[in-house]
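pls design
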């Protein structure tokens, strides 16, 4: 018992390691797996070509994709197809990273977003517009959507 109490007394007077989250930004490790981010290429086109490899690799079956064909007048991605619908259900996602590893175009990566605590479970389904890089969206979406 003396050994147990000695640990308690040694740590009782040390400074705590609590982070002040809302007041100060959170420091993440470089390999932290947070909310997914869909990327664009240097021309502003979406990198996702709608190949369904990320959905096939997902063990939680939380990725839903619908692909559509690109046209010359309406080019969304550099490939023949693009993901017209890209949803991830974060109530099922286990943040394993298999989708990131399976993507041949590096269209999806894990970001550093961590705030996933809504009151409504339906708001845990993130759509393509929410996951696209914020910098590329600011000039193409209304201010209310780009501010999310």
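designed seq:
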């Amino acid at each position: 018992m003396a050994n147990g109490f000695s640990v308690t007394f040694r740590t009782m007077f040390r400074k705590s390691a609590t982070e002040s989250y809302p007041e100060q930004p959170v420091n993440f490790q470089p390999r932290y797996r947070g909310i997914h981010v869909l990327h664009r290429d240097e021309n502003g086109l979406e990198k996702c070509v709608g190949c369904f490899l990320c959905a096939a690799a997902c063990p939680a079956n939380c990725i839903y994709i619908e692909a559509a064909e690109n046209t010359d007048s309406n080019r969304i991605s550099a490939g023949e197809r693009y993901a017209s619908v890209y949803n991830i259900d974060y109530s099922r996602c286990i943040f394993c990273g298999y989708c990131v590893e399976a993507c041949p175009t590096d269209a999806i990566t894990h970001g550093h977003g961590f705030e996933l605590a809504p009151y409504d479970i339906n708001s845990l389904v993130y759509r393509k517009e929410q996951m696209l890089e914020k910098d590329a969206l600011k000039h193409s979406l209304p201010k209310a959507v780009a501010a999310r």
